[in-house]
Prior knowledge:
By secondary structure, this protein is of the alpha+beta class. It has helices spanning 2-21, 161-167; strands at residues 40-43, 47-52, 92-97, 115-117, 122-123, 127-128, 132-133, 146-148, 154-156, 172-176, 181-183, 186-187, 190-191, 202-205, 214-218, 237-239.
Amino acid sequence: xxxxxxxxxxxxxxxxxxxxxxxxxxxxxxxxxxxxxxxxxxxxxxxxxxxxxxxxxxxxxxxxxxxxxxxxxxxxxxxxxxxxxxxxxxxxxxxxxxxxxxxxxxxxxxxxxxxxxxxxxxxxxxxxxxxxxxxxxxxxxxxxxxxxxxxxxxxxxxxxxxxxxxxxxxxxxxxxxxxxxxxxxxxxxxxxxxxxxxxxxxxxxxxxxxxxxxxxxxxxxxxxxxxxxxxxxxxxxxxx
Length: 240
């Protein structure tokens, strides 16, 4: 009887240990509660996983005219010219470091998604295709400063106006793949320009979400808009 009891206790202990390690869950920081409820957030302790369909939560001229989310362009750019693409749903999985840290190599940002906004829309860098300046492409941005590419992937290269108009110019915009946050152009009552930031388009300081301070990026009205010469930290990954 004693041997049987000892075996039972040992097996029960092993079973509990296995169950605990298989969950792969960890507490998600409160800042991620600022993401739209349509975006799914989870953490395994090492990475924050963000899942999104990439579709904006605002109207756009890039939805089909029969779609209730369609709205003809009514922005301020007199040179606006709609591109031939349209918005389609994606299956994004962004994995960003839960504890972001500086990477001395400062890897260059690629074309395609380099981060994600709080509404689940992809963030792109400061270049059009073939690493060309946005000079012409910027004229195809809708009234909220986004547009779809040839694969129907909607994204922002510059300040996402729907977010800053609704959440203030100092609000959290999202996160880049290195896990560091992106904020609007206003900080402590000052509208920042690229000259106020480092070569990666950010700086270290206190924010509303990080009272102890953190490195963070800012969107600005002038190039490079969101990110400069590369990621400040070690980047995670994105699939779609």
